[in-house]
Amino acid sequence: MKSPRFRFPLMIAFLLALSCVQPAWAERIKDLASIAGVRNNQLVGYGLVVGLDGSGDQTTQTPFTVQGIINMLSNMGVSLPPGTSLQLKNVAAVMVTANLPPFARAGQQVDITVSSMGNAKSLRGGTLVMTPLKGADGQIYAIAQGNVVVSGAGASGGGSKATVNHLSVGRIVGGATVEREVPTQLGEGEYVYFELKETDFGTAQRLVDAINGSAPGAAAAVDGRQVRVRAPLNPNERVAFIGRVENLQVTPVQQSAKVIINSRTGSVVMNQAVTLDSCAVAHGNLSVSVTAENAVSQPNPLAAGQTARVTNAQIDIQQEAGALVNVQPGANLADVVKALNAIGANPADLIAILQAMRTAGALRAELEVI
User: Fold this and answer.
1) Total-model pTM
2) DSSP code at position 180
3) Which letter does DSSP use for residue 253 in this model?
4) Are residues 159 and 200 in the same domain?
5) Which helix (H) or strand (E) holds 16?
6) Which DSSP letter does residue 351 get?
7) Which end of the chain is more exposed for a tag (fewer CB within 10 A), N or C?
8) Same domain flag for 46 and 157
């Protein structure tokens, strides 16, 4: 039996659409590079969500939830007798995470994500009580509290269960208030450093040319990723200068040819720099069929044997002859897609073919398996 073949039209259409794009386009510097030192800082904290409708942690299996409740009550002046066993259904232990943006000031509010760390069924309708958020240095930088918003719903009954979206993670918009500021140095002395998101010597040089075209002699490339720019020392003038530089248009150079293969999903993505040389490809399919037939072995009359069930298995292996296909050379993405599509292989087979073509030197691109 022949295995089904398909030409994965969605992927081909997507790649053809990419091939219609112009090979070069201008982008703003702020889309290609970031300023050194201007970055987010991650915050994390442990807290409790209360007010759940019986969907909280099972405290017998999550002792840290009980310990958290005891500590919170103790801080509020409520002491429980030793050995008290708490049976809580409306409380859930959660991890609270947030990103502290650069130049955040005390009193500014940031969004937070609340994630269940126990066995709570849902955080819907709960309220996060005051939770300190700490940085990597162990210092408290924000305080979080508020009503958790969960974009989902769930119901169960009679042994059936239905869930829409994820119920154990929620968000609170503006749920944390910044209490401590993180000093951010906008450059060192008279220089500001722009760092490309992707290392490329050609793009770095074009970045220097664009900045020097606006401010002659201000920029110099440090390496293939960093560009040093002389900026005014006055803070107001420096901010205005950086704002003008970030909006300058730069045409990045074409990236190196690369083919990305996802071995788990069978996805294949290639950029416009991929080219092909002439080659011949033969690829056949191998199919294995296993059939089992159950039978009964009956002994002769008056014999001492017993009736037994017997399974007769039959294995059939068929290999489809692969026709030799002449793959025409391709100088642009559209030609490459047409040549690969002419082979008629499915995405799983295409991965093996691309690897073999790269080994044979017919595929002018770097293969990266993720």
Assistant:
1) 0.70
2) S
3) P
4) no
5) helix 9-19
6) H
7) N
8) yes
